[in-house]
């Protein structure tokens, strides 16, 4: 079948072939045959002859006409999974954004129109006003459609659609509907990884008002939020980028508000309870913690984590906020730190920061290039110097200016687009600090530690043997590989030598990245990467004992059974995340079953981990025997959820290499 | 000052006393229980290394270097590929304290240090300076012990220990390790003093339960009653240590986990004796 499709694509003229391929991609993640997909899918190609914002508006208007709506649902979510807005060639789509839904909730399209009318930039003004018209048009169609549905709920929703676009919602329920309405639009225009932000903070006043007036109870609110979460998660497959589950739909709980008060309210607890009960991979939770995070929130967070659903990821907010200020974010803004899809810090409502637009570069290749440069190295420092030269070249190659997609839609709600009269991605947003990600740092560190010990100190390994072993992919050189895998000193070990080397490399990479800009703005760098499996194809065998195209180490995590969790936490706490090293630094580990049975003690362990300087923590609950069985008999485990690089997924939906990687990690932890 | 012989130090332990603890496993035990899951801790004169099965002897690899197996001076435990792991590290008081005090944050959150093994009371004299220092810093100290030690060892420890985890050996009687001389009535004498001088909520009694011990279930229950054990944790035996026995070149005796019927029988019997109990699967 695949061969046939490839032939079809080759025969068709290029634009049609592209369309066919796109529809096939859509169909692979949707129910229905290819024929059904060809009949149902609506693609909205870009027009490269006109201005990007004009084109966006043109596409948006077309997409909003004749919407296929499901009007009998509890909440209206006007995201048509069979519609796709296409971008021009070489335009990078917008990913990993978090609008501030408190701005959206209190927004009025009329008030926005008035502000926009005052813009000097006529082109911007026209695009924004037409976008507002299209939004109104869709809302009107929904309102008219609801008239045909005779039910009490639909009557309520009609009231919302008549009111909410021009006013602050009058109820918690209306607030949820307004969030879902706009959220659907962001997905509809093919912006990706649309985060939900701080819903416990944002919804607090609506919830409190309704509870005080007796309109709802806590239980009723929980039922509504449960419905809300299920709506967000019903299109996981279609909203996912690389892997199913990778939607970037995070709900961020906890953390300080603008006045320094730690947000921990009924809604914080309700969200944690819902995710503990539902155990869904998407959306997901992130929890900002500080020294004031309450026992009850910690306890409920742990209850959620031990289900294995992967939520919440824990953020050490003080460490992160301080780092952001040091980098260049304004002190008065960092209280509203959120993340990109997974973990890269940004400012909700103000950031256009693209966390990962450049190819992730496998640093281990820098050492390999040094080894095969036809040079001899008389000592370790010359090896490290040559490796650094190559890292510098890698960095220079991957960083470049990027042409990003535009978003007149986001421009309505992100600071300070209307004030500036500029599109969100074209200078309108307050921040545009994009990020670089490094993959395989643990593997590089381990390779260098091996060279130091075995070649230069103990002299039990010759450099030529290292080269020969790598060329042969360790075949016939199993002894050498055994040796390389046996070094006690490894990334994750808090031995000063390991920490010093790791910080030295991180500092070097940080300084190199600092030399460059993207679109005139400085860059962040992070040492956690989503590419630990995908980037492996770029890197052959390496001196940490890794074979050709084997996956890299995952974030900051133990790479050896001899390195226990506390050791890794000590190590992670010793790393320097200052300057621009703030594009996400995740400690990832698998919870031992003993901890799952002693949740109170696990709270202590996680709390202390934050106190001791961990940046971010994500936790998996993996049992190797279960995973092996699930790989062999997926039908027995339809709901098995695992945590992948920064999101959760159903194990059965993962590509085989990801399943194998998780099994190997679980076995290593046993 | 004597050095302290330690087999392992494990951090973030959650089953070894109140809170989250760092556990020090001491080398040497007055007993050699066949179900022991830390066999490397028992002997002081024998089985000094774990053999991981990686050694290529008699073939010499390029990293074998000056290994003693090939007539050189390099110890087995210095093997570059860690084909052999030592079962013992000797620490001075200062060295051990330096390691233990890394986890002060953990101790301050309701945890502490637990001395286990092996039988930690056998090295009490060498441990005294460590215990004094921990006490002066307010660190909570627990001991995991069989109490099968000379009474002077127990007496030395008593004022310095905050919490006692007593591993009772009523299943089959004591399997003694002849490397250590312990008076026959040592256990009873130490237990009586423990119960006299330490509050009941600072003592936790444990007993490893295996199916094979069920033929002695009546005796077990009687002994618990005689020794005034009001509450007991029954730990389900496991075979997780089988690989360790293999690596140490020791015979492994596999015990069966108690059946559901076993658990019910034990439950009924202990109820008749008013002994509170909990069955724990680790």
Structural summary, described in words:
The complex is a heterodimer of chains A (670) and B (282). Chain A has 670 residues and is α/β, with parallel strands linked by helices. Chain A has 30 helices and 18 strands. Chain A is globular. The model of chain A has no long low-confidence stretch (mean pLDDT 92). Chain B contains eight helices and eleven strands. By secondary structure, chain B is of the alpha/beta class. The radius of gyration of chain B is 20 Å and the shape is globular. The longest helix of chain B is centred in the middle third of the chain and has 13 residues. The mean pLDDT of chain B is 94. In chain B, the strands form two sheets. A nine-stranded mixed sheet of chain B has the order 5-1-2-6-7-8-9-10-11. A two-stranded antiparallel sheet of chain B has the order 3-4. The chains are: A alpha/beta (670), B alpha/beta (282). At the A-B interface, helix 24, helix 26 and helix 28 of A face strand 1 of B.
